[in-house]
Amino acid sequence: MDINKIKKAHLIGIKGVGMTMLAQYLAARGIGISGSDGPEKFMTDPVLEKIGIAVKEKFQPDNIPAEADLIVYSTAYKPETNPELAAALAGRARVLSLPEAIAQIFNQKYGLAVAGSHGKTTTTAWLAYVLKQAGFDPNAMIGAYVPQLSGFSLVGASDYLILELDEYQNKFRFFQPRALLLNNIDWDHPDFFPTPASYEAVFIALIKKIPKSGFLIANFDDPKIRKYARANCPGRVVSYGLSESADYRAEQIRFDQSGQYFQVKYSPAEADGQAEDLGSFFINLSGRHNIANALAVIAAAVELEVPLAKIRAAVGEFSGPARRLQLLGEFNGAAVIDDYAHHPSEIAATICGLRERYPGKRLLVVFHPHTFSRTKALLADFAASLSAADQIAVLDIYGSAREQQGGVHSADLVGLINEKKRERGEAETAQYLPAQAQAEQWLRAQAGAGDVVTLMGAGDVFRIGERLLI
């Protein structure tokens, strides 16, 4: 696909985050965009409105402009149940799935992919911001709104394209990265990957795609990445982490309410144990996981020959993407935080980060489980992670477009959380509140000065915060 020859693109399912990301990128390249989706309100609506796209809020064949020379569809939809997609596939225009369309753009550039189970969005946005501030004029596609980049994507004059690359449905198979940042490998999406081994296999295959002239930035705090990186990567492997074996490592870590401070030491294997001190770094973001994300960005930027002073400045300026430990405001004297965590490891990291940022504060969490298959497969791990909060409300499970029911209930999770609490001699403080309105009422009655309210999940749980702050 020659993107320079496309004049008009139509996106089916345009309100999804990935579709909005692509729409913003194509529009910035001067391509006319139209799109369709359901009538439900999405967090992407303001971005689409700003781009100037009038979204058709019903799927039907006559939404497709006759002059469209590219049609892209979300993989959430099938032609059997979506008449607009069926008509598109029966027509003459080029029709691509979202991952295929992005891959055709990515593979024609110096594609630097950011992959892993957790931290992809933050790391992608962070690296894009550093390169932008350093004058590299990068392209980027990111799976969240990034205030400092004014959207989900960047269009630049350089050949660099920084992409958040999602593993679900093995989208990796379409992509040929020149370089890769790999944060972690932690079994997820059990509806598509039935076993941890099947999940790990797609990451191994992705590592093998890196050319000899390319590089892998690998988190050596992750045992699976340590196992697979050097054994499978044809290119240069650059490691980072808190462990002594990492090329880039953070030391002398300290934190306060403004952020985190640490020293970065660089000691590649060929240096025979002699470490170079790269100096002190500051980051605005909370949690040890964000120190790891920062190290990945620093390592990648050094590989791309960004001057260290520019790396240090931009790393410290970055304020994060939306819905990642995002402070929305205050309600009754309580801080209201929005976070996208929807996997047990992410929840544990978020709660740990909040404890560091707000020591001694009472933590009230409203959790919106995302997909029945994930909730069922990781139920005990969800309970263990959430039990670290002081008060927990669990909403009904947010089903994806592909599954609306299945073998587990939020009440099961609440029961296990309280069981964990009892085992530690603590009060049972988790409860099942089916609807957002009930959780909002609970927070209005409970939250007060000095508390930290956290709205957590991949769905639209953030809307509770919006209503609290009206």
What would you say this structure looks like, in words?
The protein is α/β, with parallel strands linked by helices and 470 residues long. The chain folds into three domains: 96 residues, NAD(P)-binding Rossmann-like Domain (Rossmann fold), CATH 3.40.50.720; 209 residues, UDP-N-acetylmuramoyl-L-alanine:D-glutamate ligase; 143 residues, Mur ligase, C-terminal domain (Protein-Tyrosine Phosphatase, Chain A, Alpha-Beta Complex). Helix content is 34%, strand content 24%. The protein contains 15 helices and 21 strands. Strands 8-7-9-6-10-11-12-13-14-15 form a ten-stranded mixed sheet, sandwiched between helices. It has a six-stranded mixed sheet with strand order 16-17-21-18-19-20, sandwiched between helices. The model has no long low-confidence stretch (mean pLDDT 94). It is found in: Cytoplasm.
**Main beta-sheet annotation:** 10 strands, mixed
Mean pLDDT: 94
Number of strands: 21
Task: Give the DSSP E fraction (strand runs of 2 or more residues).
Answer: 15-25%
User: What is the CATH class name of the largest domain?
Assistant: Alpha Beta
The number of helical elements comes to 15
| Strand line-up in the sheet with most strands | 8-7-9-6-10-11-12-13-14-15
- Count of individual domains: 3
The low-confidence parts are: none
* Shape, principal axes of CA atoms: globular
Alpha-carbon distance between the two ends:
46 Å
The helix content, as a percent range, equals: 25-40%
Per CATH, the superfamily of the largest domain is: Mur-like, catalytic domain
CATH architecture of the largest domain: 3-Layer(aba) Sandwich
Nearest-angstrom radius of gyration? 22 Å
Could you name the CATH topology of the largest domain?
UDP-N-acetylmuramoyl-L-alanine:D-glutamate ligase
The SS-based structural class is alpha/beta
